[in-house]
Fold:
Amino acid sequence: MKKYDSNFKLIWHFLKGALPFFILSISFAALVSFLDMVNPKIISFTVDAVIGEKSPNLPGPVLALIERAGGIAALRAHPLWIALAVALVGALAAICRYLFRICNTTGGETFVRKMRDELFSHILSLPYIWHGENATGDIIQRCTSDVQTIKRFISEQLVSLIRTVILITMALTFMARINVRVTLGSAVFIPIIIAYSMVFHSKIGNAFRKVDTEEGRLSSIVQENLTGVRVVRAFGREVYEQERFEKQNAYYTSFWIHLMKLMSAFWSSADILTGMQNLMIILLGSAACINGTMTTGNLIAMVSYNLMLIWPVRQLGRVITEMSKAGISIDRIRYIMNSEPETDRADAKEPPMDRDIVFDHVSFSYEGGSEEALHDISLTIPAGSTLGILGGTGSGKSTLMYLLERLYHLEEGKGRILIGGVDIRDIRRDYLRRNIGMVLQEPYLFSRTLSENIGIARNDPGMAQIRRAARIASIDDAIQTFTAGYDTAVGERGVTLSGGQKQRTAIAQMLIRQSPVMIFDDSLSAVDTETDMKIRHAIRENTGSATVILIAHRITTLMNADRIIVLDQGRIREQGTHEELLAAGGLYRKIYDLQTAGLADED
Ligand SMILES: Nc1ncnc2c1ncn2[C@@H]1O[C@H](COP(=O)(O)OP(=O)(O)OP(=O)(O)O)[C@@H](O)[C@H]1O
Ligand SMILES: [Mg+2]
Structure:
C-alpha cells in the first residue's frame, strides 16, 4: 500500500508542527472580524442613544460600564470618549491583524520548510533507477513551483476561505440580530456573487495560461536570437527574425488586450451585482426605519456590515477556483513521496570486502530495453588482483559495474554476484558502496572548491591526504597553477576544468577513500597516453592490496592487468592475460593490431 493514499493524508503529514500556528492565526483572524463588527455598533449606539433619544441597545456589561462612568449624559458631555473607544477598537484590531499575519507566515514557512526538507531527503533515498526514469528538470519543478503552489493553497487560500466564512457568518449574525428581513435581502446576493465569480475565474484561468505560453514563445525568440546571434548574422537573417518577433509580439499584445477587456467586463458586472446588494439594504432598511421596526443608527450599522462583506465575497470565487488547481501540485508531490526508497533487508550483513568477487551466470536487461544488456556472465576476480575489461560502446561494461554497486537490482533467478561467498543482495547497500569505490564514466564535480570535491567522500580528510591523492592522480601540478590552488571553485562560479582534469579529479576523489575494491570506468579516456601510463603506475603502487577493475577502450591502459576480459554485446568473448589473448588471435588481437597500426601511422 502507498504511504499517502490521498492528498489529504499528505497535506496532513506536512501540516503537523505548523498546525498550532494556523490555529492561532485563524483565531486572530476571527478576533479581527469580531472587532470589525464592534465599531458600527458604537456608531449606531451614538446615533440612536447619544445624539438621539432612543434607549441604548447594548450588551449588559457594556451598559453597566457606561453607567459607572456617568451614563449617557457623561458621553454627551464628552463625545471624545466615543472617539477614543472607536480608536481603541481599531488599534486592537490592528494588533490582532499583525499577530494574524505573523502566525500565518510562520505557519506557512514551517509547513514549506518541512515539505522541502522531507522531499529533498526522500529524493536522495530513492533508487538510482528512479532518477533515471524521472527527468531532473521535472523533479526540480516539483520541488520549487509545486511546493510554492501548495504553500499558497494552505497559508493563503485555505486560510482566506476560513476567514471569509467566519466574516460572513459574523456579519450576517450581527445583521440578523438587528433585522432578519433586511439581512436576508442582502444574503441572497452572496451565493450569486460567489458563483458568478467562480464561473468567471475558471473560464479566465485558461486564457491566463495561454498568455503565459505566448509570453514564453516571445521570450524564447529573444533568447534564441541572442544566443545564436552569430548564426543570425552569418546567415543574414536579421530581417526575417525581426518580422518573426514582431508577429509574435503583435499576437501577444492583442491577446492581452482581449483578456483585459474580459476582466473589465467581469469587474463591472460584479460591481452592478454588489450595487444591487447595497440597494437592497438601503431599500429594505429605509422601509423598516419608516415603519419604525429599525432605528437610523442600525441602518447605518447594516450598511457598514454589508460593505465589509463585498470585497471578501468577490474574492472568494477566485480563491475557490485557484484552490482546485492545487490538487495537481499535491498529486505531483505525492508521486515523489510515494516512490519507494531503497531499503535493505532487516538482516543485511556487513561482511569483509577484501575477498574474491564472483559473477555467477549473471544476465540483466534494462527496463524497457528489448535486448539483454548482459548475458550469462560468469567471472571470478581474485582479491587483490587487477581486472581489465575491454569492449566496444554499449557492450555492457558500465552495466556490469552498476550491478556490482547495486545501482540496479539483479533479479532472483538471473544469476548471483558474490563477494567472499556472500550474495551482494544480502549486504547493506551503503556498506557495499562505501567499500567499492567507483570513478564514474561521466564524473560529476560539485560547485565547491577542488579540495572539497576531492575529499567529498570522507569527513574532513585533511590537506595532506587530499594532496597525496591528487599527486597519484597526476592532478596536483595542474591545481598548483591555479591562483587559488586547492581553494579554487569548480563549476559555474569557478574555473571550468578540461575533460581530462575532471577525470583526474574524480580519480583523486576515489583514491582518498582507500576502498578495498576500486573501479575505473573509462577514467583515463580523456588523458594522453603518457599521463595514462603515469597514473596507472602511481595507482598500482598506491592501492596496496585493493582489487582493481579497469575499464577502457585503449589496450595500453589495461594490458598490464592480471586478467582481461573482452565484452561484446553483453557476453564475455575472450579472457586471459594480455599475452594469452594476443596469442589466441581473436577479437583482442584484432583490436590490438588496429590500435597499434594507428600508432605506427602517427609515428
Ligand atoms: N539506463 C539505461 N536504460 C536502458 N538501457 C540502457 C541504460 N544504460 C545502458 N543501456 C543499454 O545497455 C547496453 C550496455 O550499456 P553500457 O552503458 O553498459 O555500455 P558500455 O559498455 O559501458 O559502453 P561505453 O563504452 O559506451 O560506456 C547498451 O545497449 C545501452 O544502450
Ligand atoms: Mg560505459
